[in-house]
Amino acid sequence: MNCLKSNPFLIFLLPLSFLLLANFFSSSYGASLDHNNLQQANIPEYLDRKIHHYHGINVEGHTRRIAEETTGDNITYDLILAADRTHRRDPTDHFNYYTGGWRIGNRHYLASVAFSAAGPIVFAIIWFVVFAVFLLCLCCRCCCCSRKSYGYSPTAYTISVVCLAVCTIAAIAGIAFVYMGQGKFESSIVNTSSFVLHKADDVIVNLKDILDNLNAAKNTSIGQSVLPDNLKAQINGITGTIEGVTTNFRNVTQKNSHDIENFLNPMKILLIGVAAALLVLSVLGFLFSVLGLGCLLGSNWMDSYNTNNYNEWRLSPCEQVRLISNPALFASFIGDTCIAMDEWLQNPNARSALEEIIPKVDNKTAQEISSVTKGVSLGTVDMINGIITKVINANVPPNVGPPLYYNQNGPMLPILCNPYDSKLADRQCAAGEVWKKYVCQVSGAICKTPGRLTPNMYNQLSTTANVSYTLYKEMPFVLDLIDSTYLKELFGDISKNYCPSLSVSTEWMYTGFIFSSVAVMFSLIIWIFYSRERRQRSYTKKVDKESSIENPFAYSQND
Question: Where are the transmembrane segments (predicted)?
Fold first, then answer.
């Protein structure tokens, strides 16, 4: 059978063209890393904050849709976050465009993120088919065409060995870059998760302190005076509300922490395992090719280059999908999340899907906590001042006896400064409203020295006043719940301090995977040329040896 002599340049250009085209398609079709080059910027005050070209994207120019939006998950939010960036095809919805914005708990959003990394899958299919046809053609040529003698080029052999070594080193360098990026990414995720959990714990601790102080105020007494029943009823009513808020905070944050851990651990094993497999395949392929150890690959009828090509062709598509798609998914999701936080910071009062990360206390609940806290603080001060005016500063006749009469005398005790007026508005306190100097020495619960307070009464007044003061000092936190300042600070810090490192680490992984994958693909192509030169070299040596045996004096005769 006559066969055309193969053109080595055409053999090289055919897979190379598909390789470059597929890698370009993979990089451009998947998540673009340009959107994830998050640059650190100074964040102004969280109130009335404007963001200009933050994280490389003009967030303020994006259209933020504020409307009642009901999704397939039957959860309604006012603000659709990162609507432009998340406008992707949804394979679970007949490949229609997803319009629900950033929503970590929505399966359609997650499907659209996964579809954004479909480039490696397409590349794997192209590579699998094209190179399969290419290998089939080579096998047909080797099996069906008669082999003719051919020459041996030492230069071509040396160049192929050098190129094969360079590609193998490049693949090793790419895998090393992947490992560094994976470690940095894991560290950034852990730090971010710890930061969110710490902030959530602060909210839980502060709410618990408020609840403890409210219960302490409910149980305080000065002599026979206690807190009014209506305030006790309000405390009982708000107790369940505060406990519900703290439970929700704890459940949501712990669930997110566990979900992140359960997601990262298998992904870490997968990334490390696949990267290690690619590394071992590249190194062993190089060694087997250079040393001519085709028999170690388990093939008796194929030489080393065919077996190496077959194994690499068979494993490369799976590795390409796993290696490149994972960091592409990370890059898309992290970029979406950071942009969503930036957009929420411009409209913090709207309900959004960010509440799936850390809950937002609704305004009604926060106002209720604020009202009860202020009311109890005001009530305890009124109770104290009532005792001061009716008992301590009163000129009670001796015949009344204890506890109303205990020989109180001397300068009048100033009433306690109430930080709120009757409308629960703030008011300023006058200086010098202290009680220690009004304490007398007692004998049998009767003052023996000038003074308006017995030590026991002073302790009761101080304890009750401290409870009221503690509730007053906790009001800024309650106000933060009302205007979501704690969320503004949380998401602002994440956007400024954590998003850049997450973006850089995913870019490292993505770049390393692309670099190593391209290096392995080139190695696969160069193996073909190297094996061809190796066969020619072996054939030339064999022919020269046979010629020298048949005519040992050939050179002397020619001379």
Answer: 156-180, 269-297, 508-530
Distance separating alpha carbons of residues 128 and 130, to the nearest angstrom: 6
CB 397 within 8 A of CB 270: no
CB 141 within 8 A of CB 2: no
Helix/strand/coil for 118: coil
State both tokens at 39: 């640059």
The three-state (H, E, C) secondary structure of 45-88, written as one string: CCCCCCCCCECCECHHHCCCEEEEEECCCCCEEEEECCCCCCCC
- Three-state DSSP state, 447: strand
CA distance 54 to 197: 25
477 and 494 co-located in one domain = no
- Are residues 394 and 404 both part of a single domain? yes
Give, in order, the Cα–Cα distances in Å from 443 to each of 388, 398, 440, 449: 21, 15, 10, 10
Rounded Cα gap, residues 138 and 134, in angstroms: 6
Same domain? For 491 and 469 the reply is no
Write down how long the chain is. 559
Q: What is the pLDDT of residues 266-317, one digit of tens each?
A: 777 877 777 787 788 778 777 777 776 644 443 333 444 444 444 444 445 5
* pLDDT-derived band at 111, boundaries 50, 70, 90: confident
Is 38 domain-assigned?
no
Q: Are residues 239 and 103 in the same domain?
A: yes
pTM greater than 0.90 (yes/no):
no
Which residues share a beta bridge with 69?
Answer: 77
Q: Please tell me whether residues 129 and 222 are part of one structural domain.
A: yes
Residue type, 501: S
Pair of tokens at residue 317: 């598509």
Residue 35 in any domain: the answer is no
The CA–CA distances, whole Å, from 66 to 22, 61, 219, 351 equal: 39, 15, 46, 9
- Residue % of the chain over a pLDDT of 90: 8
Mean pLDDT of the chain: 73
Has residue 202 been placed in a domain?
A: yes
Domain residues for the domain of 238 are: 8-29+53-361+484-543
- What is residue 552's predicted lDDT score, i.e. its pLDDT? 55
73 lies in the same domain as 83:
yes
